[in-house]
Amino acid sequence: MLEFNSEFKEPLPKREVERVTRSAEKAWQAKSDAKANEEAVAKGYPGAGYNLKNSTIIRWLEITTEEQQHLKTIIDGNEKRRRKRERDKLQKSEERKSVSREMCLENEKEKTEDKLWQLKQAMQRYPKMSNRKLAVLLSVSESYVRKLKINL
After folding, report:
1. In whole angstroms, what is the distance from residue 63 CA to residue 61 CA?
2. Distance CA 107, CA 92 (A)
3. 143-149: long-range contacts at Cβ-Cβ below 8 A with a sequence spacing of 24 or more?
4. Do 112 and 124 meet the contact criterion of CB atoms below 8 Å apart?
5. What span, in angstroms and rounded, lies between the C-alpha atoms of 32 and 48?
6. What does DSSP assign to residue 50?
7. Hey, is 148 helix, strand or coil?
8. What is d(CA 56, CA 118) in angstroms, rounded to the nearest whole number?
9. How many Å from the N-terminal Cα to the C-terminal Cα in the chain?
10. Which of 62, 112, 132, 147 sits 20 to 30 Å CA-CA off 28?
11. pTM here?
């Protein structure tokens, strides 16, 4: 570790490197020990060894907001909320699409049923009336009257 540390632009003091290395070795041994893991979980930790908060890792590594957008787990609260807003926005958009499409289809179906009923009434009242005259009476096109007659 001392050799690795010496390659940095600003190496840490020898004493600090030794202290941190001992601490890392202890954490690794604890992580490898089943009993230590059980005790840590009983105390509410995810496991033995180092248990760092995302905010600590972000601060230590100086991870920017832009970099966090590309990460999966090491994110701060702001990035978490931004992602949730995006998910919610997308979900609402999808809901609106499906609801509005369903409503449009329902409205079209109601209009068609209404026109069918009107056509049926007009044909009963005026059985000899032409499609053109029926179209004028119902305020629709002649081709629509033909389509409605097929549905009757």
Report:
1. 5
2. 22
3. 144/115, 145/119, 148/112, 148/115, 148/116, 148/119, 149/119
4. no
5. 8
6. -
7. helix
8. 72
9. 88
10. 62
11. 0.45
pLDDT tens, position by position, 61-83: 999 999 999 999 999 999 999 99
Residue at 41: amino acid letter: V
Picking from 62, 67, 42, 40, the residue whose alpha carbon sits closest to that of residue 51 is 40
Q: Which helix (H) or strand (E) holds 89?
A: helix 77-125
Contact partners, residue 131, CB within 8 Å, separation at least 6: 142, 145, 146, 149
Distance CA(12)–CA(2), nearest Å, equals 9
Tell me what pLDDT residue 37 has.
86
Q: What percent of the chain has pLDDT over 70?
A: 99
Q: Which of 5-9, 10-14, 105-109 has the lowest mean pLDDT?
A: 105-109
Residues with Cβ within 8 Å of 135's Cβ and at least 6 positions away in sequence, in order, are: 141, 142, 144, 145
Query: Token pair for residue 68?
Result: 């966090």
The full length of the chain comes to 152
Radius of gyration of the chain (CA): 36
Give the C-alpha separation, 89 to 105, whole Å.
24
Residue 12: DSSP 8-state: P
